[in-house]
Amino acid sequence: MPESLKQVSVLHLPVHLCRDYLSWLRSRLENGQTTHIVTLNSEMAMLAERTPQLTQVIKQAELVIPDGAGVIFYLRLRRHQQQRCPGIELAASLLEHIGQVPSFPIVFYGGAPGVAQKAAYYWENRSPNLNITAYHGYLSPSEEEQLKDFLQTTQPRVIFVGLGVPRQEYWIAQHRHLCPQAIWIGVGGSFDIWGGVKSRAPMWLRENHLEWLYRLYQEPWRWRRMLVLPQFALRAFVK
Ligand code: UDP
Predict the structure, then answer these.
(1) In the chain, what are the domain boundaries?
(2) Dihedrals φ, ψ of 123, to 5°?
(3) Which Pfam families match (predicted)?
(4) CB-based burial of residue 197 (10 Å sphere; 0-12 exposed, 13-18 middle, 19+ buried)?
(5) Is the shortest distance between the CB of 114 and ligand 1 below 6 Å?
(6) Could you tell me which residues are beta bridge partners of residue 150?
(7) Roughly what angle, to the nearest 10 degrees, separates helices 52-60 and 167-175?
(8) Which of 91, 116, 211, 236 has the most CB atoms around its CB within 10 Å?
């Protein structure tokens, strides 16, 4: 019996606390219980605050994990001793788990043309049991129809969607009925990392909650999006 989730609130959004998210997800997977995983960071929380549609999608998700250092900071100020759970790491643990036995189909959807395919090769080389079908994230409307047909006929049990926030959250909310037993997770730029197009921050930066700084160094155009981070920190103290 996996540990149950404890729901708390971060800027009026749900966040689910748990020591072992993977065990909780394994049980959902075994029982065919559909699950939308949202990986909440401060940028997304601030965006949700001014976007009711995103708030609604996050509230409907069965699992909202504390992905960002800002969210952990917010929780610690309220005496919740939760460890950070980066979405890319939970997604990787899920793939490692699924790869242990000859298993059901999986879909990677998102990223520039060729990248999700490279990410799929990376994972299939590591775990030959994995059976991944990759679609890039810039499909034409007719190609997207083909993807939807594929989902409906193949019924993959885990669908990784890397279209960026909030597009991936909206896409999952709109299409999750197509595979009613699946786990759906928005993975942002994870395919870029697994596909070798980008790299993650070195461990010492991650351990010091500075992964966002490395992203800013790699993708300076993010500075405008990141202006909300100090606002989030301020809100953490106030509310
Ligand atoms: N992307 C996509 N389709 C789009 C827009 C973006 O597949 O129409 C992909 C993009 O190639 C990148 C990912 O979405 O791989 C967004 O990554 P990012 O790290 O910016 O995600 P976020 O910070 O929003 O979680």
Answers:
(1) 6-238
(2) -75, -35
(3) Glyco_tran_WecG
(4) middle
(5) no
(6) none
(7) 50
(8) 116
Q: What is the pLDDT of residues 14-58, one digit of tens each?
A: 999 999 999 999 999 999 999 999 999 999 999 999 999 999 999
Say which residues have a Cβ less than 8 Å from residue 208's Cβ, sequence separation at least 6.
none
What are the b/e assignments for 87-99, b being 16+ CB within 10 Å? Answer: bbbbbbbbbebbb
Q: What is the pLDDT of residue 239?
A: 60
CB contact at 8 A, 12 and 46: no
CA 155 to chain centre: 20
In angstroms, the CA 84 to CA 70 distance is 10
pLDDT tens-place string over residues 86-96: 999 999 999 99
Residue 191 CA, closest ligand 1 atom number: 15
How far is 89 from 67, CA to CA, in rounded Å? 10
CA of 101 to the centre of ligand 1 (A): 30
Tokens standing for 84? Answer: 């950070």
